[in-house]
Amino acid sequence: MFLSQTAEYAIRAMSAIATLPPGELVRASDLVESTGIPPSYLSKILRRLVLAELLVSQKGKNGGFALSRPAGRIRFIEILYAVNAFPAEGRCAFGWGLCDSVKPCPLHGPWRRLKDRVQDWADNTTLAEVAEAAKFDQRVQLPTGKASGG
Amino acid sequence: MFLSQTAEYAIRAMSAIATLPPGELVRASDLVESTGIPPSYLSKILRRLVLAELLVSQKGKNGGFALSRPAGRIRFIEILYAVNAFPAEGRCAFGWGLCDSVKPCPLHGPWRRLKDRVQDWADNTTLAEVAEAAKFDQRVQLPTGKASGG
DNA sequence: TTTTCAATCGACCCCCCTATCTATTGAACC
DNA sequence: GGTTCAATAGATAGGGGGGTCGATTGAAAA
């Protein structure tokens, strides 16, 4: 696997929220059903997403979570950073001996290409695409409470 | 991080071996120095690489490890498979509800693109590139014992 | 055949990510 | 104000990848 379990969870949770009408609050317990993420762990992940200002939260009755901005303006890279799932700049992950731009290690090139590809993907993928796919594809279970009502 | 620690170690170890003259055996203890991988754990990883037939090993005095074939014919994807670091076919890693080609989950598209990119990278990167970089860049410590003895 | 060296093998430990549980805070509704 | 609901916070338990150890096998050299 490329991404950690937590990173996958974060993407899944954000995606589930993105399929809702903008601004609508969704409870963590509803997200549990639609995402299959362990309840208590989901809370922690949501917290991190709130701290990263990707989500806003509302306590108390009728509270819940919502995107902090339109889905099209939330890129996957931001989600990955929020859960610390993207390598910091300047570090060659293959870390073979000393390695900087002056004295690159023999694995610097391959690593660089991999990182660039993943980053490009994460930079250019937004939650809007997910929301679109879900809309287009209403076979998916949506956590809107009474989805079939209409 | 995209790749597990073990996957990184495997790539590093293979790369270190690839910088040696073809056919030359290198001891695990030498690889420890050049790669910085914990000794006892390196043995385990080398074992897996032997089982995957990416390396050949020789027991006893003057024994060691060597590539099973030319560096240019060992792709990174094979290394990743050897240490079980690449997702099996057919599984949507984001695993959001049911997901197959007929009923793709909303994250199927993004996931597919990511996987394709990583796979393309791993398919088209071989140890030859690493060996070239190391040759071109002799500032790197090579585990050849007496590298300076020319 | 003995010694030496180095890979192999099995068993085990440990840490951190993952996951859970139990309060507590705080907002809405009555 | 009191009740209810839901996010927040901290403390704590699993589990698996990462890491270690000791004994064994087997090949080369003496």
Description of the molecule:
Two copies of one chain form a homodimer. With 150 residues, chain A is mainly alpha-helical. Chain A has a domain at 5-86 and 126-136: Arc Repressor Mutant, subunit A (Orthogonal Bundle). Chain A has six helices and two strands; from the N terminus they run αααββααα. Chain A has helices at 5-18, 28-35, 39-51, 76-82, 108-123, 127-136; strands at residues 55-58, 64-67. The first copy, chain A, has a two-stranded antiparallel sheet. In chain A, strand 1 (55-58) and strand 2 (64-67) form a beta hairpin. In chain A, helix 2 crosses helix 3 (39-51). Mean pLDDT of chain A is 85; it is low at 139-150. Chains A and B meet through helix 1, helix 5 and helix 6 of A and helix 1, helix 5 and helix 6 of B. Chain A binds a DNA duplex (30 and 30 nucleotides) through residues 4-6, 9, 27-29, 38-41, 43-44, 46-47, 50, 57-65.
Short description:
The structure is a homodimer of 150-residue chains. Chain A is mainly α and 150 residues long.
